[in-house]
Specification:
Number of domains: 2
Distance between the termini: 52 Å
Shape: elongated
Strand order of the largest sheet: 2-1-5-3-4
Strand content: 5-15%
Number of helices: 9
Number of strands: 7
CATH architecture of the largest domain: Orthogonal Bundle
CATH topology of the largest domain: Fumarate Reductase Iron-sulfur Protein, Chain B, domain 2
CATH class of the largest domain: Mainly Alpha
Length: about 240
């Protein structure tokens, strides 16, 4: 099938603002949008810039706006988006070049959530790892699936309005550790989240949940954090 691909282009070395360039190519309906971009870069225009790594929906590096929605290019099939495809960089983060955005602010907010296990108690005398029951693991299992692609955060109207907002991905990271029975840093994280740019800026728009390529119930996770802040219970 013939596919018309309209791509946002921006080169900071020569452009004052971005523009759109249209390419017409032949593609299979089962091709991924990433395959289409690879074809354009390899056969049509080698200057096209975008991020990609594993190409299997694990690394999250090729998140972008496809026909107005945040998606992973490696998981989006041509047959699902049609013969007219518009590809743009994620919103809310500075465009570095073409489809590449500056992820620095995103990861700065991620780091504020203290994304590591906090437990100063001695390791058990038998030298074994700190054990969890299947039920304890299930409590936070879904939020471990986050691949830090930024699709959720850059789909959030609150983030568009104020890029100081920590964003859904950071809050999901906090959820993953707050409800981990082995962790003892919940109070520290809840204190960070209670700040002006924390969970109070979430207005339950559900854009994040819709945008997540890993099907994480992000809005629900943020709601659970809000409840923990009010009740002090980590259940």
């Amino acid at each position: 099938m013939e596919v018309t691909v309209k791509i946002f282009r921006y080169n900071p070395e020569k452009d004052q603002r971005g523009n759109y360039v249209t390419y017409k190519i032949e593609a299979d309906p089962n091709d991924r949008v990433l395959d289409v971009l690879e074809h354009i870069k390899g056969k049509e225009d080698g200057t096209l810039s975008f991020r990609r790594s594993c190409a299997h929906g694990v690394c999250g590096s090729d998140a972008m706006r496809i026909n107005g929605r945040n998606m992973l290019a490696c998981k989006t099939l041509v047959r699902d988006v049609g013969a007219n495809i518009t590809v743009e960089p994620l919103l809310g983060l500075k465009v570095a070049k073409d489809l590449i955005v500056d992820m620095g602010p995103f990861f700065d907010n991620y780091k504020k959530m203290l994304p590591y296990l906090i437990n100063d108690n001695p390791i058990p005398a038998d030298g074994k790892e700190r054990l969890q029951s299947p039920e304890q693991r299930a409590r936070f299992d879904e939020s471990t699936k986050c691949i830090l692609c930024a699709a959720c955060t850059t789909s959030c109207p609150s983030f568009w309005a104020n890029d100081e907002y920590y964003g859904p991905a950071a809050l999901v990271t906090a959820h993953r550790f707050i409800f981990d029975s082995r962790d003892e840093g919940a109070d520290q994280r809840l204190h960070v989240i209670s700040e002006t740019n924390g969970s109070v800026r979430c207005h339950t728009a559900y854009n994040c949940t819709e945008a997540c390529p890993r099907d994480i119930h992000i809005t629900q996770a943020i709601g659970e954090i809000k409840l923990a802040m009010v009740t002090g219970k980590l259940e």
